[in-house]
Amino acid sequence: MANSFYPPRHIYYDGKPKTASGSVFRSINPSTAQPLADVHTASHSDIDAAVHSAQRAFHAWSSTPPIARSRILLKAVQILRERNDEIAETETQDTGKPFSETSTVDVVTGADVLEYFANLVAAGGLNGETTQLREDAWVYTKKEPLGVCVGIGAWNYPIQIALWKSAPCLVAGNTMVYKPSEVTPLHAQILAEIFTEAGVPPGVFNVVNGAGDVGAYLTSHEGVAKVSFTGQVSTGKKVASSAAAGMKYTTMELGGKSPLLILPDADVDQAVDGAMMANFFSTGQVCTNGTRVFIPEAMKGPFEKKLLEKMDYIRPGDLMDMNTNFGPLVSEIHYGKVLGYIKHGIEVDKATLLCGGPDKPKAIEGMEDGFWVKPTVFTDCTDSMKIVQEEIFGPVMMILTYKDIEEAIQRANATPLGLAAGVFTRDLNLAHKVIAQLEAGITWVNTWGESPAEMSVGGWKQSGLGVENGKRGLEAWVRNKSTLVDMSGNVPTVFSKL
Ligand code: NDP
């Protein structure tokens, strides 16, 4: 894959790129470890300028009729779709995810969500309720925007996360300051330019680059009304407590250690397909990964045999080749972390290594220095192992066996996290009974991973607060105003006479 070198990234506000005055870091192509772009960090005064730009834009944007906002944002959807492949190529270089994924999932699902929310508000999605209290009195409610909102993104689905946050934010009449992960920052300015080209007024969508300290400054900024965060549980706790100190609204989309339950009557072939998608898509760097795969004891042999056959279908290679379906890990730091877990699984947890492991995979020409790992499967795992308890966020599957379904459900729920869960079975009655008992906000039956715009998604327990997408996803970006109107002419008072 040819390695591009992109123009430097600074900061974006008032509808155009501006020079940032903080330090410079380099964005790296993880497949080759070659530099991609110089990124200029926003200083505190740069961040203040971006927030002020969003504040200045708020009044006019929030007063624009929803249908007019919708028209502008649908134009952005059109541009995103026209530029799909070019943006996907940038995402492939920045994240290391194959073009076969970024061109069919990342930009597509981001544009779909923007289209969904633009259509929702155009069709009255921001309407309130009217309640007749008495013949001459009623209550009406309005959904009002919050003000300047902050979006802070993780590195695994950069443009998708940026759109899943900015779409409901902007359609509701808010303005946004968005901070991408410093690991994958290239999409942010592209999206800002697309919004501007579509007719989104200056200041409505702004970008600041930088690391955690930029996110922390934004989170505590007094000009900010809401923080929508996607990232690790530990960072999410810091962000949520800082936002709570300023009484800001929050949405937290955090990590998981999700269980996938294969029930005794499941089709083995389908179960293996589901388990592979739940562990190796995006090289395992998906928040909803189903890394704890529970299978009945009697199915262990056939499941592992089929899995080993299908592991050959994982095809690392030139990331722009549509046949490639597996890329490197996103960064050197993350590579070290994932390898550390694989070594821990072998040396300390003493799980059985079914395939993969910590050795460097066969080098791919031109990408010898990239952060490639082997897709790895551990079996004979037990619930107390570190690799079973902690989020690895890499292509590492853990197989656990169970005797009866109630036991599997109880073990599946024995985690402080509750992002996703899934079941494979031919018995749909049983599927619903099991799903009803699983403690997770996102659940699947006989499939794994699809997250359409219509589906509200969010974690339970320590995996998050609130949801993104679907009708409920809009509620996170508005506040309620209730008005009681009385036309009787009699003001109820206890002070009308002596
Ligand atoms: P991090 O928590 O490390 O970072 C997330 C974002 O927060 C980054 O932009 C980061 O900046 C920023 N940040 C870091 N410290 C602070 C701080 N103190 N205040 C404000 N912002 C801060 O997560 P990762 O980027 O490593 O992403 C992987 C994690 O995200 C996984 O746990 C995964 O499960 C989760 N995730 C959850 C999803 C969901 O919908 N539930 C979806 C996708 C991922 P920088 O990177 O520049 O340091």
UniProtKB/TrEMBL annotation:
SUPFAM superfamilies from the UniProt entry: ALDH-like
Catalytic residues (UniProt): 253
CDD domains referenced in this protein's UniProt entry, alphabetically: ALDH_F9_TMBADH (cd07090)
InterPro entries registered for this protein in UniProt: Ald_DH/histidinol_DH, Ald_DH_C, Ald_DH_CS_CYS, Ald_DH_CS_GLU, Ald_DH_N, Aldehyde_DH_dom
EC class of the enzyme, as a word: oxidoreductase
Listed EC numbers: 1.2.1.3
Keywords recorded for this protein, A-Z: Metal-binding, NAD, Oxidoreductase
A molecular-function term among this protein's GO annotations: metal ion binding
Domain Aldehyde dehydrogenase: start-end pairs: 23-482
Family annotation (PROSITE patterns): ALDEHYDE_DEHYDR_CYS, ALDEHYDE_DEHYDR_GLU
Keyword match Cell cycle: no
Recorded catalytic activity of this chain's protein: an aldehyde + NAD(+) + H2O = a carboxylate + NADH + 2 H(+)
Pfam families: Aldedh (PF00171)
PANTHER family per the UniProt record, alphabetical: ALDEHYDE DEHYDROGENASE-RELATED
Family: Belongs to the aldehyde dehydrogenase family.
Protein's recorded name: aldehyde dehydrogenase (NAD(+))
